[in-house]
Amino acid sequence: MALLPILEFPDPRLRKLASPVTHFDDRLRRLVDNMFETMYQSEGIGLAATQVNVHKRLLVLDVSEEKDSPHVFINPEFEVIEEELQDYQEGCLSVPGFFEEVSRPRAIRVSARDRNGETFELEAKGLLAVCIQHEIDHLDGKLFVDYLSPLKRQRIRSKLQKEQRKSA
Ligand code: QAP
Ligand code: CO
Predict the structure, then answer these.
(1) Taking the complete model, does pTM exceed 0.85, yes or no?
(2) How many Å apart are CA 39 and CA 45, to the nearest integer?
(3) Pocket, ligand 1, Cβ cutoff 6 A
(4) Which of 11, 33, 36, 165 keeps 20 to 30 A from 74, CA to CA?
């Protein structure tokens, strides 16, 4: 397995629209394994392929305390089943060091394929619903900072660019 480099805001590659997965082969399963390793190593709860510069529609997540509930969603789609919004303090491995409140629909129904190409459906609420919506946003080139005020977003951009210049 291997750790994958994670793109950081404001890298323009985070804005690309991901295309559907068409081949459920060993190469895809290797990518999924490497994404899990990268997510767990970074102490993340979710990671979208876009964040590792692969512009395909897949994401991994594990919102359990014990870190023993890995889930893969390939070509995911969701519908809102509870319009009422919930606020959650969100972070992102592509926006390291920043956590801000974001409001999203409370409950969703998701359909997706697993690593073997089998379709499944589930209903999600709470943190799982937040995390799935956050990760699907990545596949559409969207980041949680897009929901913040322009001022907050600009401050985060400046601080991260400064960090990135130091480490480049
Ligand atoms: C998305 O994000 C998420 O800044 C997944 O220093 C996060 O795993 C959805 C992380 C929160 C809902 C709630 C971020 C780790 C992890 C950081 C993550 C950091 C270390 C973010
Ligand atoms: Co993220």
Answers:
(1) yes
(2) 7
(3) 42-46, 88, 90-93, 96-98, 130-131, 134
(4) 11
